[in-house]
Amino acid sequence: MRLTLKIWRQSGPSDKGGAVTYPIEGVSEDMSFLEMLDVLNEGLIAKGEEPVAFDSDCREGICGMCGVMINGEAHGPERTTTCQLHMRSFRDGDEIVIEPWRADAFPVIKDLCVDRGSFDRIIQAGGYISANTGSAPDAHATPVPKSQADRAFMAAECIGCGACVAACPNASGMLFMGAKITHLGEFPQGQPERDARVLSMTAQHDEEGFGGCTNLGECSRACPKGIPLNVISQMNSDLLRAQRHQA
Amino acid sequence: MATSTISAGKRPRTRSILLKTVMAVTGLIFVGFILAHMYGNLMIFAGEDSFNEYAHHLREFGTPMLPESGFLWIMRITLLVSVVLHAASAFILWGRAGKARSVRYIQRRGEWATFVKRSMRWGGVALLVFVVFHLLHFTTHTINIGGTHDTPAGRLVASFGVWWAVLIYLFAVACLGMHLLHGIWSAGMTLGLNTSLDMAERLRLVSILVTVVVVVGFALPPVAIFLGLIP
User: Fold this and answer.
1) What is the pTM of this model?
2) Residues of A in contact with B108 (CB under 8 A)
């Protein structure tokens, strides 16, 4: 395959940056999108140019490290992570526009790499269950109803890749946060801190500079794990409940 | 042994979810008002006398328990407070969303979502302008279209004999329809009603049904009057 890549290049956080066009040849349909970028970088290094910086780690769709905007879609045209996207999803001669996630809460570090530390700080604000360590409790000591366990697992699929923020017209992090709050809120162990969790996490989310949710659903459509929009509604109702309890 | 537990956190700015809750509650007040308003408008199909009777009865509603026009003023104040809260929250959230992405994408998909977002924001501004026009037209009679008339029904029939007045009102109804289609769904989401995939379907269905009823109900009187279908 012969392709034209239009890639965002930015040497550092303070650089203004801009799109640079690279022609690339000899791309196989069986390559993953990141392998295609590896091929491009090898060519750039051979020519003595600076390779394109992009994030990746597991390359099997479970870590949430990779993720770029491809032709205006988070993780590209398939509902999966960028590493699991393959070049067979494109056609010979295509022009592909590759940009970093755009959100002021995700500042660009270099080229396609963004700093998602704001997600970490939201988790630090309350995305956990406090427990004294010690010997592990018996697995059946606290029964969890099947339907609740299923919903918790569904929400726990979130890998924190940031595609929801990237796809959101308001750059909101509500789907990510809603997934964490729904996940922990479905468990009996999550109940004692349920109010404090939602109050603290939503405060941190807004402080990080994410926008508000307008319930358009772009996040859920972009999510490689298919997290449904109802986790946002769950978080909203948890917050209203916490406010009532506080009053 | 001490374990650090979650603290409720510090409070710098009003949470966007709470601003949205204000918008959802005031929005539902508008939906209730709009359904009642639409029902009143349809009285014109029962004849000019029924319509005048209805307009007059609005002033006597609740008397003698309430003073003359008392009910009307309670409604007006409720709606005024609601519109101020609704618009103020909307503008704050609009500003925050703008600041949340200061560098834009070169290329962007999701055209429908962007269209809906704009129709909510700019359509909302259009509705606000329309409401001012509408009050100047039928409430204070500052704007006269098609000549002056003594009765509410007379003013209604005279106004909608003018083609551009019909167009202005139909455009406003279209804006209202777009606003309701997403607004009712959005209010349900914000108030925590979307708890499952089935509930999401139902919420969508309710917002579509209410929108269709409101658009048809509001579009009928001006169109029927313009076409001379009302005696």
Assistant:
1) 0.92
2) 72
